[in-house]
Amino acid sequence: MAFETAQSVLLSGIVLGSLYALMATGLSLVWTTLGIFNFAHGIFMTIGAFIAWQVGTDLGWGLGPAAGIALGVAALVGVGCLSEFLLVRPFLSRSGIVMLVVITTLSATIFLENSTLLIWGARYKQMPPLIEGKVELLSTAISAHEVLMIAIAPLTLLTLWVFLKFTRIGSAIRAVSQNQESALLMGMNVPLLYSIAFGLSAGLAGFAGILLGSIRFITPGLGNEPLVKALIVAIFGGLGSLGGTIGAAYIIGLVEAISTFFIGLYWTPAILFAGMIVVLLLRPTGLFGKK
Amino acid sequence: MTDATLEVRDLTVGYGKTQVLRGVSLRLAGDTRIGLFGPNGHGKTTLLKTISGLLKPWHGEILLNGARIDGAAPRAIVDLGIIHVAQGNVLFPELTVLENLRLGAYCRRARRQLKDNLERVYLLFPRLAERRRQHSKTLSGGERQMLSIGVGLMGAPELMMLDEPTLGLAPKLKDELLEAIGEISKGGVPLVLVEQDIEFLLALTDHLYMINHGAVALDIASGDQLDHEEIMQMYFGKE
Fold first, then answer.
1. In sequence order, which residues have a C-beta less than 8 Å from that of residue A257 and are 6 or more positions away?
2. Which of A237, B24, B137, B201 has its Cβ near the most Cβ atoms within 10 Å?
3. pTM for this structure?
4. pLDDT of residue A17
5. Cβ separation of B78 and A185 shorter than 8 Å?
6. Nearest CB to B86: which of A172, A181, A187?
7. Touching check for A180 and chain B: CB below 8 Å?
8. pLDDT of the residue at A2
9. Which residue has the higher pLDDT, B140 or A133?
């Protein structure tokens, strides 16, 4: 294999990995805090992309990409908090909450997906890249937009880590999943913490959606396939470990890029799932999961 | 009669349809220390959980300095200064000792005194200072109990409720905790102490209540001069 090919496969793997890291971290955050899987995470991506398109592009309101990103992410934080309130909170004290929330978030996905179809129509939307032009990187030319994605994902996740590790609310979010009774006895507002975690997670999804929407066409189904990948990543990395999730995101991204190049697009998802099954057979808690 | 610090009047509560407390009344006046004992599963822990707001009372009243607090959310009760150190508390196992302690001062009232209280806790339990960077799951049983009490102190308690702090601990550790709890109480914090170890209770409290079948079966004030043997006899019944 030529050196250039190897390099471009590697780069596309890292770009995918960055995207999956943003997606799966949000999914994992909700899992660690609330102990539920949010199947509306994919549609959150889609809505983020549509809002950024509406606000930012000339076919929409034309306020520029910065406004598009800011409003898109902010709106998604709001959507996340609202979803927690409507789809999760009513069932918090029920014993079957995990399955109930699978159903409520799947229903929300169908509802929201069709809403985006009604609002924005079926015509493919496209967002211009955030920065134009190409960057020469070790003799391979890649788009500046992709370089930005590679840089911005770790920065965003680092910010999230600092928030969770060093702020009072962040520690409380990590704590509440470990022992709800203690959290209550220390005077924490548990529902508010859930709401913040859900809002953050949705904001991350929206941001990932905006980045994805500027390299792919925006359709109501934009988030479906990345959601499945994020699920694989979150499970593969060991549910609940944020570091593991991020590591797994880059591994899956690279495996996907390599497999797409050598084996083809068609078989790649099957290979990813097979890989996940093998990992779970050997290490039931995931690659980086704790016992 | 002046308002008691804490007063419970005719409290009934249960889980689902199962009633646990059948009309409990008790009184903690001034900065005294009351002790609760009695067989397992007869409502001591349930009583504490109801006072701290984890359970909603079915009937009856709970008053703090004369104001009703029954039915309030746990958060509101922590804000009022009632700190409940739960039984066999594992706290937050994946967080460090220091992180656990800092979260103990989560409510606004306690946050202002975070630094002072952290020093106090480290002075009281030097072992926690040594282990402050360790995950709390790596602590031994005794250290974990110290952490639980330390986290309670971080909440700047005006009244502290301890649920079986010596559960499963070796005698040497019990003595250590006894000293520490005595120290806390000397600092003017009224205590509600649940214990199976009668000697521990007698050493630390002025007023004992025996809870049996969800009600107060015995009310022993310190003036009554009961000795250990007599209490044991009441506890287990006479031959």
1. A9, A10, A12, A13, A16
2. A237
3. 0.89
4. 93
5. yes
6. A181
7. no
8. 75
9. B140
Q: Which helix (H) or strand (E) holds A137?
A: strand A134-137
Q: Which of A144-148, A200-204, A258-262, B149-153 has the lowest mean pLDDT?
A: A144-148
Nearest CA in chain A to B93: A178
Q: How many helices (H) and strands (E) does chain A have?
A: 11, 2
The letter for the amino acid at B214 is G
Task: Report the pLDDT value the prediction gives residue A71, as an integer from 0 to 100.
Answer: 97
Tokens of A290: 């704790």
The two counts, helices (H) then strands (E), for chain B are 10, 10
User: How do residues B29-75 score in pLDDT, each as one tens digit?
Assistant: 887 899 999 888 889 999 999 999 999 999 999 999 999 999 999 99
Sheet of strand B6-15: strand arrangement: B18-28, B6-15, B59-64, B67-68
Closest-CA distance, A137 to chain B, in angstroms, reads 41
A114 and chain B in contact, CB less than 8 A: no
**pLDDT tens-place string over residues B43-54:** 999 999 999 999
What is the ipTM for the molecules in this complex?
0.90
- Distance between the two ends of chain B, CA-based, in angstroms? 40
Phi and psi for B159 in degrees, rounded to 5?
-155, 130
CB contact under 8 A, A187 and B90: no
Q: Which long-range contacts (CB under 8 A, 24 or more apart) does B115-121 make?
A: B117/B153, B117/B154, B117/B156, B118/B154, B120/B153, B121/B150, B121/B153, B121/B154
Q: Helix, strand or coil for residue A221?
A: coil
Nearest to A227 by CA among A19, A33, A8: A19
B87: nearest CA partner in chain A: A182
Beta strands in chain B (DSSP E): 6-15, 18-28, 33-37, 59-64, 67-68, 82-85, 159-163, 191-194, 207-212, 215-221
| A188 CB within 8 Å of a chain B CB | yes
User: In angstroms, rounded to a whole number, what is the distance separating the alpha carbons of residues B12 and A290?
Assistant: 43
- Shortest distance between the Cα of A238 and any Cα of chain B, in A, equals 15
Give residue-wise pLDDT tens across range A150-195: 999 999 999 999 999 999 999 999 999 899 999 999 999 999 999 9
Distance of residue B103 Cα from the nearest chain A Cα, in angstroms: 7
Mean pLDDT of B61-90: 92
At B239, the pLDDT band (50, 70, 90 cuts) reads very low
Using the beta-carbon criterion (under 8 Å), do B103 and A179 form an inter-chain contact?
A: no
| Any B CB within 8 A of A186 CB | yes
